[in-house]
Amino acid sequence: MKVNELKKVLKPLIRECIKECIFEEGVLSGIITEVAKGMSTQRLVAEGITVTKKTADPEDLKKKADALEAQRQKKIKMLNESMSFGEVNVFEGTKTIPADTSGKGALAGVSSDDKGVDIDGIMAIASGKWKQLM
Q1: Distance CA 35, CA 29 (A)
Q2: What is the pTM of this model?
Q3: What is the residue extent of each domain of the chain?
Q4: Cα angle value 111/113/117 (rounded, 5°)
Q5: CB contact set of 103 (below 8 Å; sequence gap of 6+)
Q6: Nearest Cα to 53, choosing from 62, 67, 43, 38?
Q7: pLDDT tens profile 111-132
Q8: How far apart are CA 85 and CA 28, in angstroms?
């Protein structure tokens, strides 16, 4: 069989199969939908006003973000200034909690060299009176 004869036989069969596939299985509507989406310019029409949706410029977004951050830092500074205690250091004599918080329980996160609360005064108050207190 020659190539031309094969084409004459196969071409109508293939054309018929493609038509059947496109029309019966709903492929054509999907193709049209995708083409329509690709061609749209995303315009909004409301009360006769057309607004074209455009993407934001990265430089403008960065400028806005920087301006908002500067405004936030300014507010933080004002808050800190309004809450100042003059020249008094309210955290004088305190230690930071150690970063090792792997322990569990009531004393998790407490330094091992922390002496806790001094209870010697309790013993001095109640010396000799334990029997009366019980």
Answers
A1: 10
A2: 0.28
A3: 3-52, 56-84
A4: 90
A5: 109
A6: 43
A7: 777 788 888 777 777 677 766 7
A8: 75
